[in-house]
Amino acid sequence: MNPPPTDTLQTLQCRALSLAGLALSSALTLGAVSPLPSALSFTPAGNGEFQFDTGVLSGKLRAEGRSFGLTSVTHRPTGQSLSRSVGLFGLYRVFSDGKRCGTAGWDWPSEIALAEDGSVTVRCPAETNRPFALRGLYRWSSPTTLDLAIEVTPQQDLHGFEVFLASYFDPAFSNVLVQVQADSHAAAPSFLVAEKSFGDWLMFPRDTAAVSLIRDGRWELPPNPVRWEILPKLACPLAVRRAPASGLTAVLMAPERDCFAIAMPYQTEGHYSTYLSLFGRDLPAGKVAQARARLQFLEAPSDEVLLQSYRSYTEKAGANRP
Fold first, then answer.
1. Which residues share a beta bridge with 42?
2. How far is CA 84 from the centre of its chain?
3. Is residue 33, in this structure, part of any structural domain at all?
């Protein structure tokens, strides 16, 4: 591949709202070097490119009119490269009605617009073989936190719609974990390491309905079909990529309603990638649908900090849902 009834109790750990989570923003920020005056803004860089420098993270959006995904991402205090290949939070596979919409969403021609608040919106119009318009809004919520909101406007009913959001990390990020429900692998909800013994390509579904969607044939389509090993169900859509030498940790998360699976190869496989399967539902014609996700970089966070970060995000995301 290139670039069960106990659910309610077991997901309380991620769904509970914690007052402590509301005070995390200052505690979670990494040691920043002096930020730019517009530190939480994207800025034009010429040739249709947009760059960013939050004081902690720097890089750019993909260029040449195909702007989904952050590339050349660097942790400024240490100089550690964070991304590789086509980068972080890019649209990869997009599925609907038993078909794949092109090879990859990051190849779709797009238009990009900069807002007054420093966020950028990437727009892809509907086409004959893609009966929906799609736009993605990238916004920096803190020097270490990127939020993405994807909106889809279908021109016709779409069935089993999915956006497979991809992130390709520097090889230093060789540890990957996913927050899963209690099962034969763990007596309580916990972070499960994506070990080679589980298989090559691993999928953690939200529920039984998600497994049906994953196995409906979409991943058997050529080229590059993938056989996913189905692993324990998610306790919440929360995954971690960690660089063991430095402790730098990438945290990928999404509201439970928006993300029906998390996928990755085993942790040291050469893609060093992690994927969020977004939407996973039927979309009626003419009605705008939205899915959201967050990418955050923390320094050697404990499991409790990771969970508090997720609670804080999903509380705010729930309050802001249109």
1. 52
2. 15
3. yes
Domain of 36, CATH number, reads 2.70.98.90
Report pLDDT digits (tens) over 258-298.
999 999 999 999 999 999 999 999 999 999 999 999 999 99
CA distance 219 to 229: 12
pLDDT surpasses 50 at 21:
no
Packing angle of the helix pair 303-319, 7-15 (nearest 10 deg): 90
Q: Is residue 264 part of a domain?
A: yes
Number of structural domains found in the chain: 1
Query: Does a structural domain hold residue 123?
Result: yes
Residue 2 lies in a domain: no
Could you tell me the residue range of the domain that residue 158 belongs to? 7-319
Are the C-beta atoms of 75 and 57 separated by less than 8 Å?
yes
CB-neighbour burial class of residue 247 (10 A; exposed 0-12, middle 13-18, buried 19+): exposed
Tokens of 283: 């979309």
Whether residue 36 has pLDDT greater than 60: no
Residue 54's nearest CA partner among 81, 69, 74 is 74
Map residue 131 onto helix, strand or coil: coil
Q: What is the pTM of this model?
A: 0.88
Closest by CA to 142, choosing from 320, 18, 298, 318, is: 298
Q: Residue 281: is it exposed, middle or buried by C-beta count within 10 angstroms (0-12/13-18/19+)?
A: middle
Q: Are strands 57-61 and 49-53 parallel, antiparallel or unpaired?
A: antiparallel
Of the spans 44-53, 57-66, 100-109, 294-303, which averages the highest pLDDT? 294-303
